[in-house]
Specification:
Layout: H1 3-10, H2 29-37, H3 41-45, H4 48-62, E1 66-68, H5 75-79, E2 84-87, E3 91-94, H6 99-103, H7 107-113, H8 115-126, E4 134-140, H9 142-151, H10 159-165, H11 167-191, E5 195-199, H12 210-227, E6 232-235, H13 242-249, E7 253-255, H14 262-268, E8 273-274, H15 286-299, E9 305-306, H16 319-331
Parallel strand pairs: 1-4, 4-5, 5-6, 6-7, 7-8, 8-9
Antiparallel strand pairs: 2-3
Helix pairs in contact: 4-8, 8-11, 9-11, 11-12, 15-16
This protein binds coproporphyrinogen III.
The site of coproporphyrinogen III has 22 residues, from strand 3.
Length: 333
């Protein structure tokens, strides 16, 4: 059994497993080299051999306990036929949303379009370097995908009102998103993913209607993953009440963001916990990094805990700081 599965299923607290959100990405010079030659990000995600290579890069360097497939949560709208582009410095930009077209996309059509992702998962899960490691498949949560598809870019503060203007459209779109997220999850598991993480990056934006837009659709996905016999990790970034979220959604593990007080949450939540460390700590110095890392390890010493960050690793992070982080965790007894 892999260290992460042992932590989740057997509540083993001795292994201190680690992986890092956005571990396959821009802080790695070997990624930047590939990226410089491949200006179209979506095409890169759909390049089976390069996405396999990028996924393995952080494993070779740091021997993390899990490989997370190099892809993006916005491959879902792409698979549904909405244009998705990444412009330098601007983040994602999505094209016009055409509900009539999206409604008529078939499961086969969608699966065919995203097939290179599944092939790459299959390559990774059979690679010997991933022996005794998890292969993490992932999706965006329905709410976060809805936000990107309607807002067509990173959301502004007044976004939610905009989304609720046309309730019929919103509900219809949400149910289509949910349907295809389930398909995408199933395809990733069939290809060899041993864990699924659900990223709800904009969970913190919503103040009302949390039940309808976050709790219920996420619970549906969580139940879907559980039925396929794979553990599921949820990351409701910025949500006010992690405890209520966990009580309702019941993931196998929850990733906390860096604004969550670890001392408080460890007493409130019984399920395994992942993450928490502020990625900005990796931009300070080794001494501070060491101290902050030990703080999390100490607090979660007797709680099933997988080390990770409270959001994705920042592109300007130095390799030697990641090495220091891994050394601290591996050496903690
Ligand atoms: O974690 C990994 O290493 C696996 C790959 C991965 C990427 N995106 C690759 C990526 C994962 C798990 C994601 C998830 C993702 N994508 C989220 C949820 C997590 C979070 O950060 O909140 C979100 C909101 C997105 C959407 C997205 N993709 C944004 C907002 C951006 C642009 C801003 C940014 O951080 O770069 C992307 C692009 C993206 N996705 C890059 C990578 C490596 C950078 C691409 C580049 O080189 O320009």
């Amino acid at each position: 059994m892999t260290p992460i599965q042992d932590c989740i299923k057997n509540k083993n607290t001795n292994l201190n497993p680690i992986w890092i959100m956005r571990q396959a990405g821009r802080y790695l010079p070997e990624f930047r080299e590939i990226r410089a030659k491949n200006t179209d990000f979506i095409k890169l995600c759909l390049n089976e051999s390069l996405s396999t290579e990028i996924t393995l890069q952080p494993i070779r360097r740091f021997d993390f306990d899990a490989a997370i497939i190099f892809s993006d949560i916005l491959m879902l709208p792409f698979g549904l036929g909405q244009e998705v582009k990444f412009e330098k410095g601007l983040g994602p930009k999505l094209g016009e949303l055409n509900l009539d077209l999206i409604e008529n996309v078939s499961k086969d059509e969608f699966t065919k379009k995203l097939n290179p992702i599944y092939k790459s998962i299959s390559n990774i899960s059979t690679n010997t370097i991933c022996k005794n490691k998890d292969v993490i498949g992932f999706v965006g949560a329905p709410w976060t995908i809805l936000v990107y598809m309607i807002n067509k870019m990173s959301p502004k503060k007044n976004l939610t009102k905009e989304i609720f203007k046309d309730k019929l459209l919103t509900r219809k779109l949400l149910s289509i998103i949910e349907k295809f997220l389930k398909i995408h999850i199933e395809n990733q598991i069939k290809a060899g993913a041993t864990l699924i993480q659900i990223f709800d990056s904009w969970a913190g934006l919503l103040e009302n209607n949390i039940l309808e837009f976050i709790y219920e659709p996420t619970l549906n996905l969580v139940n879907h993953v559980k039925k396929l016999n794979v553990p599921v990790i949820c990351f409701p970034r910025g949500i006010k009440d992690y405890k209520s979220y966990c009580d309702f959604v019941k993931p196998n593990m929850v990733n906390i963001d860096y604004n969550v007080d670890p001392k408080k949450i460890v007493n409130e939540i019984q399920i395994p916990i992942q993450g928490g460390l502020d990625p900005k700590v990796l931009l300070t110095d080794k001494e501070n990094l060491h101290r902050e890392t030990i703080k999390y390890l100490q607090i979660f010493k007797d709680h099933p805990y997988v080390f990770n960050l409270g959001h994705g690793i920042l592109p300007e992070t130095k390799i030697e700081m990641v090495e220091e982080l891994v050394k601290t965790i591996r050496g903690f007894k």
